[in-house]
């Protein structure tokens, strides 16, 4: 039995005791992330009862001790605990009178452990309920993009609603919710992980020579944390809102989505989540055809979500401010394209290499990465970012 499974079983025993569950059989199976998760070991759990079977899902911390500081692991796992232990309760209270189709729905949460090095979360298994992952190697399509931004708008609307209904609580919560990955204030090891010059140059090598200098200038004068700082009043942002952290069920008008990772929630700017979602999920053709349409759909969805929560959109986030913020933050697409697209587009064999054990881990570039990054750069050029 691995250390991760031992940690999981310890928390599971606690959950069963607290809930009074007495299963006749417990089945635990470790699963591959398929390149969707680099910091946790993943497990499927089946609790067998005489009249039913309860399907659960678990994540257990899987980062070597020497990499915890580099990866900001304490912040990642601590943020997830905060979301499940507090933010979900605040948000669910705000939307308790809404019908399910209008609510931002968190996965049902069963338990969490904060033991350092063995941080564990147990939640419902959405796959067992018919939800499926989106192929991370495929470009976003309209329906998944539409549902994704509608869901994001619901998430951001709850932040504005909390700020209005309980400004003191909102102020206390967001006071120390800084995005901590790739920041100027990090130690040298952490900076090197994100901004190794050899790594950056390797990623830029897929671009035409004439484009590299312009992209390199943005990369070397930016940080992830810089782009994730609020422009004006903070919004509680997701920070890693991408297809790999989402599960979908149904199709067309009946398509539903659930978000399953909350390790990078922070006080930031709403448009960075939107840029992150679209640019890391789409190819050049989709960006050309649908970026403006999706951005508009996000804002109209936000207006509707705010009104359902009795918040005036004009008072908290007028369209002019949204469009200004979007323009100001659009270069974020270049930064995350260079830093994160290599991981997102890596084939499963490369993706399953143990990044959590190797501070020198480098994902090999692929033809898909080259195609997608060129698409990001081309679209940003068309919009005047470069």
TrEMBL record:
<feature type="domain" description="CHK kinase-like">
    <location>
        <begin position="121"/>
        <end position="308"/>
    </location>
</feature>
<dbReference type="InterPro" id="IPR004119">
    <property type="entry name" value="EcKL"/>
</dbReference>
<dbReference type="InterPro" id="IPR011009">
    <property type="entry name" value="Kinase-like_dom_sf"/>
</dbReference>
<protein>
    <submittedName>
        <fullName>(African queen) hypothetical protein</fullName>
    </submittedName>
</protein>
<dbReference type="Pfam" id="PF02958">
    <property type="entry name" value="EcKL"/>
</dbReference>
<dbReference type="InterPro" id="IPR015897">
    <property type="entry name" value="CHK_kinase-like"/>
</dbReference>
């Amino acid at each position: 039995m691995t250390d991760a499974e031992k940690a999981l079983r310890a928390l599971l025993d606690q959950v069963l005791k607290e809930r009074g569950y007495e299963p006749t059989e417990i089945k635990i199976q470790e699963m591959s992330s398929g390149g969707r998760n680099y910091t946790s070991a993943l497990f499927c759990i089946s609790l067998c009862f005489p009249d039913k079977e309860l399907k659960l899902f678990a994540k257990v911390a899987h980062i070597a001790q020497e990499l915890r500081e580099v990866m900001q692991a304490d912040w990642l796992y601590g943020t997830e605990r905060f979301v499940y232990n507090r933010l979900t309760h605040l948000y669910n209270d705000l939307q308790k009178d809404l019908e399910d189709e209008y609510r931002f729905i968190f996965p049902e949460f069963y338990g969490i452990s904060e033991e350092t090095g063995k941080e564990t979360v147990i939640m419902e298994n959405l796959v067992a309920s018919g939800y499926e992952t989106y192929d991370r190697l495929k470009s976003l399509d309209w329906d998944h993009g539409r549902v994704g931004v509608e869901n994001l708008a619901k998430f951001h609307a709850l932040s504005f609603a909390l700020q209005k209904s309980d400004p003191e609580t909102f102020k206390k919560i967001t006071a120390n919710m800084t995005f901590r990955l790739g920041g100027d204030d990090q130690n040298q090891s952490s900076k090197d992980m994100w901004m190794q010059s050899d790594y950056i140059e390797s990623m830029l090598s897929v671009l035409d020579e004439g484009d590299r200098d312009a992209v390199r200038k943005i990369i070397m004068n930016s940080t992830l944390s810089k782009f994730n700082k609020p422009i004006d009043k903070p919004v509680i942002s997701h920070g890693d809102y991408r297809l790999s952290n989402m599960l979908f069920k149904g199709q067309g008008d009946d398509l539903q989505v659930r978000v399953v990772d909350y390790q990078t929630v922070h006080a930031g700017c709403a448009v960075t989540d939107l840029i992150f979602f679209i640019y890391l999920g789409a190819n050049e053709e989709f960006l050309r055809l649908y970026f403006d349409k999706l951005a508009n759909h996000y804002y109209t969805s936000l207006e509707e979500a705010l009104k359902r929560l009795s918040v005036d959109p004009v008072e908290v986030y007028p369209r002019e401010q949204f469009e200004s913020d979007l323009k100001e933050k659009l270069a974020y697409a270049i930064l995350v394209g260079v830093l994160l697209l290599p991981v997102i587009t890596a084939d499963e064999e490369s993706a399953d290499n143990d990044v959590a054990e190797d501070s020198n881990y480098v994902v090999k570039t692929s033809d898909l990465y080259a195609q997608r990054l060129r698409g990001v750069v081309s679209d940003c050029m068309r919009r005047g970012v470069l």
